[in-house]
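forwarding from the other thread:

> can someone predict this with geranylgeranyl diphosphate?

sure thing
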Amino acid sequence: MFEEKLSFYRTVINEELEKILTMLENKDCKLVCEAMKYSLISGGKLLRPVLTLAVCEMFNKDFKKALSFACAVEFIHVGSLVHDDLPCMDDDSSRRGKASCHVKFNEATAVLVGDVFFSSAFEILTYGKNYGLKDATILKAVLFLSKMFGTKGIVCGQNMDLFTNYEEKNLKTVEKIAFYKTSSLIRAAVGLGCIAVEVESFKMEKMDEFAKYFGLFFQVCDDVLDYEQERNKMKKKLDFLSIYSIKEAKEVALNYCKKALDVLEYFNDSDFLKNLTNYSLRRVN
Ligand code: GRG
Protein backbone atom coordinates (compact mmCIF):
# COMPACT_ATOMS: atom_id res chain seq x y z
CA MET A 1 0.00 0.00 0.00
CA PHE A 2 2.71 2.51 1.03
CA GLU A 3 5.06 1.47 -1.80
CA GLU A 4 2.25 1.72 -4.35
CA LYS A 5 1.29 5.18 -3.21
CA LEU A 6 4.93 6.30 -3.25
CA SER A 7 5.39 4.97 -6.74
CA PHE A 8 2.14 6.64 -7.86
CA TYR A 9 3.30 10.02 -6.50
CA ARG A 10 6.67 9.60 -8.21
CA THR A 11 5.04 8.83 -11.55
CA VAL A 12 2.78 11.88 -11.33
CA ILE A 13 5.71 14.13 -10.35
CA ASN A 14 7.96 12.80 -13.12
CA GLU A 15 5.23 13.36 -15.71
CA GLU A 16 4.74 16.94 -14.50
CA LEU A 17 8.50 17.60 -14.48
CA GLU A 18 8.76 16.32 -18.06
CA LYS A 19 5.87 18.58 -19.07
CA ILE A 20 7.55 21.59 -17.46
CA LEU A 21 10.87 20.81 -19.18
CA THR A 22 9.09 20.73 -22.53
CA MET A 23 7.55 24.13 -21.80
CA LEU A 24 10.96 25.58 -20.92
CA GLU A 25 12.65 24.20 -24.03
CA ASN A 26 14.32 26.65 -26.40
CA LYS A 27 16.33 25.53 -29.41
CA ASP A 28 18.62 28.56 -28.97
CA CYS A 29 19.54 27.25 -25.51
CA LYS A 30 19.99 23.62 -26.51
CA LEU A 31 22.92 22.54 -24.35
CA VAL A 32 21.46 23.99 -21.14
CA CYS A 33 18.08 22.35 -21.87
CA GLU A 34 19.78 19.00 -22.49
CA ALA A 35 21.79 19.33 -19.29
CA MET A 36 18.63 20.25 -17.35
CA LYS A 37 16.92 17.06 -18.47
CA TYR A 38 20.06 15.03 -17.70
CA SER A 39 20.12 16.39 -14.14
CA LEU A 40 16.39 16.41 -13.41
CA ILE A 41 15.14 13.10 -14.82
CA SER A 42 17.88 10.93 -13.44
CA GLY A 43 16.64 8.58 -10.77
CA GLY A 44 16.43 10.99 -7.83
CA LYS A 45 14.23 9.76 -5.00
CA LEU A 46 11.84 12.76 -5.38
CA LEU A 47 11.49 12.81 -1.62
CA ARG A 48 10.79 16.54 -1.35
CA PRO A 49 8.00 16.74 -3.96
CA VAL A 50 6.48 13.55 -2.54
CA LEU A 51 6.42 15.26 0.87
CA THR A 52 4.60 18.25 -0.62
CA LEU A 53 1.89 16.08 -2.18
CA ALA A 54 1.55 13.87 0.88
CA VAL A 55 1.16 16.85 3.24
CA CYS A 56 -1.52 18.26 0.96
CA GLU A 57 -3.39 14.93 0.99
CA MET A 58 -3.02 14.54 4.73
CA PHE A 59 -5.17 17.65 5.01
CA ASN A 60 -7.77 15.87 2.88
CA LYS A 61 -7.27 17.90 -0.23
CA ASP A 62 -6.64 16.82 -3.82
CA PHE A 63 -2.82 16.44 -4.10
CA LYS A 64 -2.95 18.10 -7.55
CA LYS A 65 -3.45 21.42 -5.79
CA ALA A 66 0.16 21.17 -4.64
CA LEU A 67 1.67 19.67 -7.80
CA SER A 68 3.28 22.85 -9.13
CA PHE A 69 4.68 23.67 -5.71
CA ALA A 70 6.10 20.14 -5.45
CA CYS A 71 7.88 20.51 -8.80
CA ALA A 72 9.25 23.93 -7.83
CA VAL A 73 10.92 22.41 -4.75
CA GLU A 74 12.46 19.64 -6.85
CA PHE A 75 13.83 22.29 -9.24
CA ILE A 76 15.57 24.07 -6.35
CA HIS A 77 16.84 20.76 -4.98
CA VAL A 78 18.34 19.62 -8.30
CA GLY A 79 19.81 23.07 -8.98
CA SER A 80 21.49 22.97 -5.60
CA LEU A 81 22.93 19.50 -6.32
CA VAL A 82 24.32 20.66 -9.68
CA HIS A 83 26.00 23.65 -8.00
CA ASP A 84 27.10 21.59 -5.01
CA ASP A 85 29.02 19.21 -7.30
CA LEU A 86 31.01 22.05 -8.95
CA PRO A 87 34.78 22.14 -8.37
CA CYS A 88 34.44 25.42 -6.43
CA MET A 89 31.92 23.81 -4.06
CA ASP A 90 31.98 20.15 -2.99
CA ASP A 91 33.82 19.05 -6.15
CA ASP A 92 32.07 15.77 -6.91
CA SER A 93 32.46 14.03 -10.24
CA SER A 94 29.49 11.73 -9.83
CA ARG A 95 25.87 12.14 -8.85
CA ARG A 96 23.16 9.47 -8.72
CA GLY A 97 25.60 6.95 -10.15
CA LYS A 98 26.36 9.04 -13.25
CA ALA A 99 28.81 11.79 -14.18
CA SER A 100 27.94 15.11 -12.47
CA CYS A 101 26.49 17.80 -14.70
CA HIS A 102 29.78 19.75 -15.04
CA VAL A 103 31.68 16.56 -15.91
CA LYS A 104 29.16 15.36 -18.49
CA PHE A 105 28.77 18.84 -20.04
CA ASN A 106 31.13 21.58 -18.78
CA GLU A 107 31.49 23.88 -15.80
CA ALA A 108 29.90 26.97 -17.34
CA THR A 109 26.90 24.95 -18.47
CA ALA A 110 26.49 23.51 -14.96
CA VAL A 111 26.49 27.03 -13.50
CA LEU A 112 23.80 28.06 -15.99
CA VAL A 113 21.80 24.91 -15.30
CA GLY A 114 21.78 25.69 -11.57
CA ASP A 115 20.76 29.28 -12.34
CA VAL A 116 17.88 28.24 -14.55
CA PHE A 117 16.62 25.64 -12.05
CA PHE A 118 16.56 28.34 -9.36
CA SER A 119 14.84 31.00 -11.44
CA SER A 120 12.38 28.58 -13.07
CA ALA A 121 11.31 27.27 -9.65
CA PHE A 122 9.64 30.61 -8.96
CA GLU A 123 7.98 30.59 -12.39
CA ILE A 124 6.67 27.07 -11.66
CA LEU A 125 5.07 28.23 -8.40
CA THR A 126 2.85 30.49 -10.49
CA TYR A 127 1.58 27.47 -12.48
CA GLY A 128 -0.37 26.70 -9.28
CA LYS A 129 -2.99 28.98 -10.85
CA ASN A 130 -3.79 26.14 -13.30
CA TYR A 131 -4.73 23.98 -10.30
CA GLY A 132 -7.04 26.58 -8.85
CA LEU A 133 -4.69 28.33 -6.42
CA LYS A 134 -5.32 31.96 -5.58
CA ASP A 135 -2.75 34.70 -6.32
CA ALA A 136 -2.37 35.31 -2.57
CA THR A 137 -1.52 31.63 -2.02
CA ILE A 138 1.11 31.75 -4.75
CA LEU A 139 2.59 34.93 -3.29
CA LYS A 140 2.85 33.24 0.10
CA ALA A 141 4.62 30.31 -1.55
CA VAL A 142 7.08 32.64 -3.32
CA LEU A 143 7.99 34.25 0.01
CA PHE A 144 8.36 30.95 1.80
CA LEU A 145 10.46 29.29 -0.89
CA SER A 146 12.75 32.34 -1.23
CA LYS A 147 13.35 32.30 2.51
CA MET A 148 14.20 28.59 2.57
CA PHE A 149 16.58 29.14 -0.35
CA GLY A 150 18.46 32.26 0.71
CA THR A 151 20.57 33.63 3.54
CA LYS A 152 18.26 31.98 6.07
CA GLY A 153 18.15 28.73 4.10
CA ILE A 154 20.31 26.47 1.95
CA VAL A 155 22.69 29.20 0.81
CA CYS A 156 23.55 29.80 4.46
CA GLY A 157 23.97 26.05 4.99
CA GLN A 158 26.28 25.75 2.02
CA ASN A 159 28.29 28.77 3.18
CA MET A 160 28.74 27.24 6.64
CA ASP A 161 29.50 23.82 5.15
CA LEU A 162 32.26 25.28 2.98
CA PHE A 163 33.82 27.75 5.38
CA THR A 164 33.30 26.66 8.99
CA ASN A 165 36.60 25.83 10.61
CA TYR A 166 36.92 22.05 11.15
CA GLU A 167 38.25 22.74 14.64
CA GLU A 168 34.83 24.08 15.59
CA LYS A 169 33.51 20.55 15.67
CA ASN A 170 30.71 20.33 18.17
CA LEU A 171 27.12 19.16 18.01
CA LYS A 172 25.65 22.65 17.98
CA THR A 173 27.64 23.70 14.90
CA VAL A 174 27.05 20.45 13.01
CA GLU A 175 23.31 20.56 13.77
CA LYS A 176 23.17 24.17 12.64
CA ILE A 177 24.81 23.35 9.30
CA ALA A 178 22.37 20.45 8.74
CA PHE A 179 19.46 22.64 9.79
CA TYR A 180 20.25 25.20 7.10
CA LYS A 181 21.70 22.94 4.43
CA THR A 182 19.23 20.09 4.55
CA SER A 183 16.21 20.91 6.71
CA SER A 184 15.55 24.11 4.74
CA LEU A 185 14.36 22.37 1.59
CA ILE A 186 12.46 19.74 3.57
CA ARG A 187 10.78 22.66 5.37
CA ALA A 188 10.06 24.24 1.97
CA ALA A 189 8.51 20.99 0.72
CA VAL A 190 6.33 20.53 3.79
CA GLY A 191 5.48 24.23 4.12
CA LEU A 192 4.42 24.54 0.48
CA GLY A 193 2.13 21.51 0.94
CA CYS A 194 0.49 23.39 3.83
CA ILE A 195 0.33 26.70 1.94
CA ALA A 196 -1.26 25.08 -1.13
CA VAL A 197 -4.26 24.01 0.95
CA GLU A 198 -4.28 27.06 3.25
CA VAL A 199 -3.94 25.20 6.54
CA GLU A 200 -4.21 27.19 9.77
CA SER A 201 -0.90 28.69 10.88
CA PHE A 202 -0.65 26.63 14.10
CA LYS A 203 -0.88 23.43 12.03
CA MET A 204 1.74 24.74 9.61
CA GLU A 205 4.03 25.51 12.55
CA LYS A 206 3.59 21.97 13.85
CA MET A 207 4.40 20.56 10.42
CA ASP A 208 7.46 22.82 10.30
CA GLU A 209 8.67 21.16 13.50
CA PHE A 210 8.22 17.78 11.79
CA ALA A 211 10.24 19.03 8.78
CA LYS A 212 13.11 20.29 10.96
CA TYR A 213 13.55 16.89 12.64
CA PHE A 214 13.10 15.12 9.30
CA GLY A 215 15.91 17.19 7.79
CA LEU A 216 18.21 16.45 10.71
CA PHE A 217 17.84 12.67 10.61
CA PHE A 218 18.01 12.76 6.81
CA GLN A 219 21.41 14.50 7.00
CA VAL A 220 22.76 12.12 9.68
CA CYS A 221 21.75 9.20 7.40
CA ASP A 222 23.44 10.96 4.46
CA ASP A 223 26.68 11.26 6.45
CA VAL A 224 26.48 7.57 7.46
CA LEU A 225 25.84 6.52 3.83
CA ASP A 226 28.74 8.70 2.62
CA TYR A 227 30.98 6.90 5.08
CA GLU A 228 29.66 3.37 4.45
CA GLN A 229 29.73 3.77 0.68
CA GLU A 230 33.13 5.45 0.84
CA ARG A 231 31.96 8.63 -0.82
CA ASN A 232 33.89 11.73 0.35
CA LYS A 233 36.69 9.39 1.48
CA MET A 234 39.49 11.91 1.13
CA LYS A 235 37.53 14.92 2.39
CA LYS A 236 37.91 16.34 5.87
CA LYS A 237 34.31 17.35 6.40
CA LEU A 238 32.56 18.83 9.38
CA ASP A 239 29.61 16.46 9.66
CA PHE A 240 27.87 14.22 12.21
CA LEU A 241 30.68 11.68 11.87
CA SER A 242 33.21 14.28 13.01
CA ILE A 243 31.62 13.95 16.43
CA TYR A 244 29.94 10.54 16.50
CA SER A 245 30.91 6.96 15.73
CA ILE A 246 28.77 5.17 13.12
CA LYS A 247 26.86 3.38 15.87
CA GLU A 248 26.21 6.62 17.77
CA ALA A 249 25.21 8.44 14.58
CA LYS A 250 22.61 5.76 13.80
CA GLU A 251 21.16 6.21 17.30
CA VAL A 252 21.11 9.98 16.85
CA ALA A 253 19.29 9.57 13.51
CA LEU A 254 16.74 7.31 15.18
CA ASN A 255 16.16 9.89 17.92
CA TYR A 256 15.54 12.74 15.49
CA CYS A 257 13.30 10.41 13.50
CA LYS A 258 11.26 9.55 16.60
CA LYS A 259 10.79 13.26 17.26
CA ALA A 260 9.55 13.76 13.70
CA LEU A 261 7.13 10.84 14.12
CA ASP A 262 5.91 12.22 17.46
CA VAL A 263 4.86 15.45 15.75
CA LEU A 264 2.81 13.46 13.24
CA GLU A 265 0.78 12.04 16.14
CA TYR A 266 -1.03 15.40 16.25
CA PHE A 267 -2.55 14.74 12.87
CA ASN A 268 -5.17 12.31 11.61
CA ASP A 269 -4.46 10.52 8.33
CA SER A 270 -0.71 10.79 8.75
CA ASP A 271 0.01 7.10 8.02
CA PHE A 272 1.63 7.72 4.66
CA LEU A 273 3.90 10.42 6.11
CA LYS A 274 4.85 8.15 9.01
CA ASN A 275 5.73 5.39 6.56
CA LEU A 276 7.69 7.84 4.41
CA THR A 277 9.61 8.98 7.49
CA ASN A 278 10.54 5.40 8.45
CA TYR A 279 11.37 4.59 4.83
CA SER A 280 13.70 7.61 4.64
CA LEU A 281 15.47 6.53 7.82
CA ARG A 282 16.15 3.10 6.32
CA ARG A 283 17.17 4.38 2.88
CA VAL A 284 20.24 2.94 1.23
CA ASN A 285 20.96 5.71 -1.28
C1 GRG B 1 24.74 28.26 -5.32
C2 GRG B 1 22.95 30.00 -4.87
C3 GRG B 1 23.47 28.63 -4.67
C4 GRG B 1 22.77 27.78 -3.91
C5 GRG B 1 23.08 26.42 -3.74
C6 GRG B 1 24.94 24.22 -3.33
C7 GRG B 1 23.96 24.74 -2.37
C8 GRG B 1 23.66 26.17 -2.42
C9 GRG B 1 23.34 24.00 -1.49
C10 GRG B 1 23.51 22.54 -1.46
C11 GRG B 1 23.15 22.00 -0.19
C12 GRG B 1 23.20 20.51 -0.27
C13 GRG B 1 23.85 19.82 -1.41
C14 GRG B 1 22.65 19.82 0.71
C15 GRG B 1 22.66 18.35 0.73
C16 GRG B 1 21.31 17.85 0.99
C17 GRG B 1 21.18 16.38 0.66
C18 GRG B 1 21.21 15.41 1.76
C19 GRG B 1 21.05 16.00 -0.61
C20 GRG B 1 20.73 14.63 -1.07
O1 GRG B 1 19.33 14.54 -1.19
P1 GRG B 1 18.61 13.24 -1.74
O2 GRG B 1 19.21 12.02 -1.09
O3 GRG B 1 19.02 13.26 -3.27
O4 GRG B 1 17.15 13.42 -1.58
P2 GRG B 1 18.31 12.62 -4.57
O5 GRG B 1 19.45 12.29 -5.48
O6 GRG B 1 17.53 11.41 -4.17
O7 GRG B 1 17.44 13.69 -5.13
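Residues 40 and 78 are 6 Å apart (CA to CA). thats all i got for now
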